[in-house]
């Protein structure tokens, strides 16, 4: 059977080897997987996790999935398709030797590891994305590069689901389970094929359910780097002259935000702080050093600061679609379906779970402080007000509190904790499923406090599923200890994604 499958579907050779040889070579596989660099962040494991049948580390050849232009003298520029052998792994930046067709070394330098993938694990078909969950699938399919009909085949992370054909339809996604019966593959029982390749080729010229036909393979989303360059991982105090200000994105009580560029190459967001005289530079640097270490796929990356002169700059990654609140209120946001809304809520919960695990609190979690990129990737921003805490809470006398998003104990006693962030997350869920409605509309701050103390809670937004509203209500429990943890919220929302489709 193994030989038959290899002949009929060579594009899945790596997957077949995993299926048929896992029992025979289980000990060997475990040994190889343990060699993967433990320093790679959880948010960057997606490429490594797709393929479990890996060759030895020493002999592996890697292929560039995207082009890269060097920013520092020790970095190496390369084009899509260039081949490499890894010399040394150093966190997110690896030392690699670029090879020619015969395997001769052309140049050696530092490269971003998530731009590369093992040559041995790259399947023959551009539409095969390996192991991927629905959240990552949506973020790939829904980018502007993909037109209606764009598709991919993935191996679901859900047990017993197997292969899934996911297709972009307008600004949504449809998912079709690919069933396997002995040597046949099918989506519809009336039409079976000898291989997944045959199945895909058929639906590229024939309709599939409500889909006219499959279009072009999904474009793989180019990953964003978590640093400007290798040198800024540790040396993140940079001169202002390196940055160019472009258009203004917004303003707030603490800062104005601009789009800009670093060295006329890398797009960034530049936050120019107000009231610099009140900042203690030493304390500020200590806070930034802590924030620089908070690295997660659903948290905005802090790149650098400029504090040699006032006003101070804070440099972060740039997100194309702006803040979540403005997006939800736009025509584009109004057209988003429940699956995408729930997917975005999950991403925020994922980022907040990371903060919770690292004993960090936000204090101002709201849709206005979540930024959105291509493919509706969401990242929690403005957690610069957060504090790293050893106790489960801390006290604050700050009167600049967003009343309508703040928990009762924080409003009355100034006690902030991860549980007060959970309350705010419930309000954020209300914003998401109401497409940006103002919570407690028409009620002033004093009235909000009175209503909350009397037991009043926001009603369910129109068309909000009952199981989502139950999650909101759990976030608004009066006693902090009765509210769920972000880890539980993340798990529940992941389950909800399958229920809203």
Write a structural description.
Residues 127-218 form the SH2 domain. It catalyses: L-tyrosyl-[protein] + ATP = O-phospho-L-tyrosyl-[protein] + ADP + H(+). By secondary structure, the protein is α+β, with helices and mostly antiparallel strands. Helix content is 28%, strand content 22%. It is built from 15 helices and 21 strands. The strands form six sheets. A five-stranded antiparallel sheet has the order 4-3-2-1-5, with no helix packed on it. Strands 13-14-15-17-16 form a five-stranded antiparallel sheet. The longest helix has 20 residues, at 338-357. The chain starts with a helix and ends with a helix. Mean pLDDT is 82; it is low at 1-58 and 386-391.
What's the arrangement of strands in the largest beta sheet?
A: 4-3-2-1-5
Helical fraction: 25-40%
- Which word captures the global form? globular
**Largest sheet, if any?**
5 strands, antiparallel
Q: What's the number of helices? A: 15
**Poorly predicted tracts of residues:** 1-58, 386-391
Number of strands: 21
> What percentage of amino acids are in beta strands?
15-25%
Distance between the termini: 35 Å
Domain SH2: 127-218
Main location: cytoplasm
Subcellular location: Cytoplasm
EC number: 2.7.10.2
Quick take:
Its main location: cytoplasm. It is an enzyme of class 2 (transferase). The protein is α+β, with helices and mostly antiparallel strands.
């Amino acid at each position: 059977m193994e030989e038959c499958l290899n002949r009929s579907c060579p594009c899945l050779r790596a997957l077949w080897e995993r299926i048929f040889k896992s029992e025979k070579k289980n000990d060997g596989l475990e040994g190889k997987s343990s060699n993967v660099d433990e320093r790679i962040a959880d948010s960057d494991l997606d490429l490594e996790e797709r393929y479990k049948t890996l060759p030895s580390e020493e002999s592996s050849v890697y292929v560039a999935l995207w082009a890269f232009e060097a920013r520092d003298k020790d970095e190496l520029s390369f084009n899509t398709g260039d081949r490499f052998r890894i010399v040394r792994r150093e966190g997110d930046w690896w030392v690699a030797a670029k090879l020619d067709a015969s395997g001769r070394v052309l140049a050696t330098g530092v490269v971003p590891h998530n731009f590369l993938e093992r040559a041995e694990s790259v399947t023959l078909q551009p539409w095969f994305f390996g192991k991927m969950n629905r959240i990552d699938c949506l973020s790939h399919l829904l980018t502007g590069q993909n037109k209606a009909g764009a598709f991919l085949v993935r191996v679901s992370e859900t047990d017993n689901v197997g292969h899934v054909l996911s297709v972009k339809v307008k600004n949504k996604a449809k998912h079709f389970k690919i069933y396997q019966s002995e040597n046949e593959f099918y989506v519809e029982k009336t039409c079976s094929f000898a291989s997944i390749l045959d199945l895909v080729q058929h639906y590229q010229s024939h309709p599939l359910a409500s889909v006219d036909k499959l279009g072009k393979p999904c474009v793989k989303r180019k990953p964003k780097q978590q640093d400007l360059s290798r040198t800024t991982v540790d040396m993140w105090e940079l001169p202002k002259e390196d940055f160019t200000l472009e258009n203004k994105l917004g303003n707030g009580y603490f800062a104005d935000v601009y789009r800009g560029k670093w060295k006329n190459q890398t797009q960034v967001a530049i936050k120019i702080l107000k009231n610099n005289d009140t900042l203690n530079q030493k304390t500020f640097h200590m806070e930034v050093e802590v924030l620089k270490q908070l690295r997660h796929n659903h948290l905005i990356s802090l790149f650098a600061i400029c504090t040699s002169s006032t006003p101070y700059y804070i440099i972060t990654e740039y997100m194309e679609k702006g803040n979540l609140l403005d997006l939800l209120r736009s025509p584009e946001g109004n057209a988003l379906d429940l699956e995408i809304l729930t997917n975005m809520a999950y991403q925020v919960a994922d980022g907040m779970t990371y903060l919770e695990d690292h004993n960090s609190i936000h204090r101002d979690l709201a849709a206005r402080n979540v930024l959105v990129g291509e493919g509706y990737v969401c990242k929690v921003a403005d957690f610069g007000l957060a504090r790293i805490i050893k106790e489960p809470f801390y006290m604050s006398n700050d009167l600049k509190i967003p009343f309508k998003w703040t928990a009762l104990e924080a409003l009355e006693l100034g006690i902030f904790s991860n549980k007060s962030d959970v309350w705010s997350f419930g309000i954020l869920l209300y914003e998401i499923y109401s497409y940006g409605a103002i919570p407690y509309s028409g009620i002033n701050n004093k009235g909000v406090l009175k209503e909350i103390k009397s037991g009043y809670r926001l009603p369910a937004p129109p068309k909000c599923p009952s199981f989502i509203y139950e999650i909101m209500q759990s976030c608004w429990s009066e006693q902090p200890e009765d509210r769920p943890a972000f880890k539980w919220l993340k798990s529940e929302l992941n389950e909800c994604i399958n229920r809203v489709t």
